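[job 4471] stage=fold_predict status=RUNNING
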Amino acid sequence: MEHAIKTAHLAVGYDTVIIVPDFDIGFQKGKVTSIIGANGCGKSTVLKAIGRIIPSAGGTVIINDTDIARMKNKDIAMQMAILPQSPTAPGTLTCSELVSYGRFPYQKGFGRMSKEDKEIVDWALEVTNMGDFKNREIAYLSGGQRQRVWIAMALAQQTGIILLDEPTTYLDLCHQLEVLELLKELNEKQHTTIVMVLHDLNLASRYSDFLLAMQSGKVYAYGSPAQVFTPEMLKACFQIDGEIVQDPRSGKPLCLSYDLLRKA
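[job 4471] inference complete, writing structure tokens
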């Protein structure tokens, strides 16, 4: 089993409050993993620490067998792209201009775009089905189109790993499926390792090879959707009594209905 990302005794928090005290996990290379759990359990905190957006309080993060503590930011950006929740940029930027920022780690001297850089930007826009919008300002895009452009920027970094924090937030059902179908397609065709935080458990189950369920800053369960997405997990991590069935379309577990656990 080859891991794209491994953590050992990773501790993360804000100021003096440790939210994730001891996080040990290995994310399989070339697979899609979704991190699930209740609000405040540490999902986004872990993702930010792995992407070195926030510092860790202890432990290590290994990317492709290298400790990120020993890596320069530019070197990390050549191996891993991260999209935070609800990323923002000036609305006057065109799609092509935004995606071109993904080439920054590779630029030298005055940072001018080379012919190869421009070809990669065009490729990233085409792969995400945004080629026809390359000259459109992002202020005039729909929510789903904006997410596609941000993903295109991550693709332009040409990394083997993409981290995404709630990429379907604020999107309607159609655009949620569009984004997740795109990510799954990138995984299958480009063999990109994808680790994302998702709130919708049914979508996480449907589009992931692995699920990581967190509870109060700790790993509750990690494995295939069939192994993790269970009534016991819903009770422990979400305090709900859920009915799990098999999705007739994907064959993955699906939460059909649920109620709050009754307090004693």
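[job 4471] summary: The mean pLDDT is 93.
[job 4471] exit 0
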